[in-house]
Design goal:
Elements (H helix, E strand, L loop, with lengths): L1 H28 L2 H4 L6
Keywords: Membrane, Transmembrane, Transmembrane helix
């Protein structure tokens, strides 16, 4: 179990960081109207 934890946990952290970085990059490169949140009313 320790072997799985030492191998999977760092990979999961790196994957989450990569996904977050990709999301931020995508928001930067997308047009501004897609960045703004949807109108509530």
């Amino acid at each position: 179990m320790g072997f799985i934890k030492t191998k999977i946990l760092p990979f999961a952290i790196v994957a989450l960081f990569g996904i977050a970085f990709f999301a931020v990059s995508a928001r930067i490169w997308l047009p501004g109207d897609m960045m703004s949140p949807a109108p509530i009313n």
